[in-house]
Amino acid sequence: MTDLPVRYARWDGPGLPFTLVDTRVAAEPGPGEVLVRIDLATVCGSDLHTATGRRRSPAPSVLGHEQVGTVLAAGGDVRCQDGTPVVPGLRVVWSVTASCGDCDRCGRGLTQKCRALFKYGHELLDELAPLTGGFATHCVLRPGTAIVAVPDELPDEVAAPASCATATVAAVLAEAGPLDGRRVLVTGAGMLGVTAVAMAAEAGAEVIASDPDPKRRAQALRFGARETAATAADVGVDVEIALELSGHPDAVRTCLGALAIGGTAVLAGSVFPGPAVPLDPERLVRGLHTVTGVHNYRPADLQRAVDFLAAHHAAYPFAELVGGAYDLGTLDAAFAGAHGAEAPGAGAPRQAVRPHQAAATGS
């Protein structure tokens, strides 16, 4: 069996620099596995939270879970979510999770919470099988991973975030229910927020985007928001659907307080520890409100994400959401750039990493 030279960036814990590791792996994947060359990866907000210690994650590990790549080899008859055969040369994105398909949670359709869940970019490093994250030249996809083919016309910068940001938004909208003609509030106009604005607007919703940052509010208008708001007082009440995508406690309170009779709030931004938010049970009961949470997503959500981007990416400035031109050797700088992008008035919310780019050209 031949082997393949590969490189990955090892993360050793909060506050520590990345270490480049060169090694070799089997060029022929095992049964049900897929070997993919990673063409571009993006630094997600949860990568930042992990690197700074805000979010607990095992170390050492290979971070990264938003990426697009090209199939080099498949271990048998592996299929994409829509039935497309996974063959060498196929351009793909894949789910952040791999599920067993056999446990009780998978049987209930909760594959994203499988009892034997494997999460790309979130696992303890196994030096004998290290290709488990996006910040590497290659990744080995396990059985139980949702794989979606990427159309040629979809740029790498637009396709890569589908594996986390766009698919998560697709899952949020699926929980929200029908959107056509509904008044929808989106709190947080970062990467997920503006994606939700565009997807909800295309579904026929009247969208209000709430964010304290004026630059982000202006961006939300470019993604289809009907109006914007800086504070809870500016939002008012009587929205039929509220989508919380920032994780800020004030935004959660805004969503809960803005619901009309029969309204639904979908919370997806609170993926790191924070203060508890009070819930008025009388208002919930008398208002016939529904409050639900979304974490990770199902395979069908990833397919919907790619389908949406393929159909609408040219109508909205999705490519502007990804900046930078980093390589694995400048990954620390990419994380610094991504951290700066979270500041008010900053630039692109995602920073791009091209693992096969020559180190001398990194920025």
TrEMBL record:
<feature type="domain" description="Alcohol dehydrogenase-like N-terminal">
    <location>
        <begin position="30"/>
        <end position="152"/>
    </location>
</feature>
<dbReference type="InterPro" id="IPR013154">
    <property type="entry name" value="ADH-like_N"/>
</dbReference>
<dbReference type="Pfam" id="PF08240">
    <property type="entry name" value="ADH_N"/>
</dbReference>
<comment type="similarity">
    <text>Belongs to the zinc-containing alcohol dehydrogenase family.</text>
</comment>
<feature type="domain" description="Alcohol dehydrogenase-like C-terminal">
    <location>
        <begin position="192"/>
        <end position="310"/>
    </location>
</feature>
<keyword id="KW-0862">Zinc</keyword>
<dbReference type="GO" id="GO:0008270">
    <property type="term" value="F:zinc ion binding"/>
</dbReference>
<dbReference type="InterPro" id="IPR013149">
    <property type="entry name" value="ADH-like_C"/>
</dbReference>
<dbReference type="InterPro" id="IPR002328">
    <property type="entry name" value="ADH_Zn_CS"/>
</dbReference>
<dbReference type="GO" id="GO:0005737">
    <property type="term" value="C:cytoplasm"/>
</dbReference>
<dbReference type="GO" id="GO:0004022">
    <property type="term" value="F:alcohol dehydrogenase (NAD+) activity"/>
</dbReference>
<dbReference type="InterPro" id="IPR017743">
    <property type="entry name" value="ADH_phosphonate_catab-assoc"/>
</dbReference>
<dbReference type="InterPro" id="IPR011032">
    <property type="entry name" value="GroES-like_sf"/>
</dbReference>
<dbReference type="Pfam" id="PF00107">
    <property type="entry name" value="ADH_zinc_N"/>
</dbReference>
<keyword id="KW-0520">NAD</keyword>
<feature type="region of interest" description="Disordered">
    <location>
        <begin position="344"/>
        <end position="363"/>
    </location>
</feature>
<protein>
    <recommendedName>
        <fullName>alcohol dehydrogenase</fullName>
        <ecNumber>1.1.1.1</ecNumber>
    </recommendedName>
</protein>
<keyword id="KW-0479">Metal-binding</keyword>
<dbReference type="InterPro" id="IPR036291">
    <property type="entry name" value="NAD(P)-bd_dom_sf"/>
</dbReference>
<keyword id="KW-0560">Oxidoreductase</keyword>
